[in-house]
Hints:
Blueprint: H1 5-30, H2 38-50, H3 53-57, H4 61-84, H5 89-115
Amino acid sequence: MILNKKTYYTLAISAYFCLFSLLMAWNTLLMPSARFPTALVLIVTVTPLLLPLRGFLHGRSKSTAWMAYVSLLYITHGLVEAMANLTERWYAIGETIIALTLFLSATLYVRLNGKNPDQ
């Protein structure tokens, strides 16, 4: 299997939609917050993913780099949540793994896209 920039971009898009789906399901169906309204939790957790989305879907390097930076927030959140909250530990571990996949694949896509933007 050849790991070219198209492969990394496809992996980044897949990880993005998996992370988005996990956050939506986690905060609405699986473990809704008892202290905060669900809408507020969704605004705080999902909105950062939506900011660079348009350029990311078009494969623009700058937006993809920003998506990699945004995924660092979710890596940090997943690690902290996994250590602090035993009842939601597996969701947090999943968030960390998916966000790490998003970070690495988006970073590798930007790196390869900078070398050969035409391929």
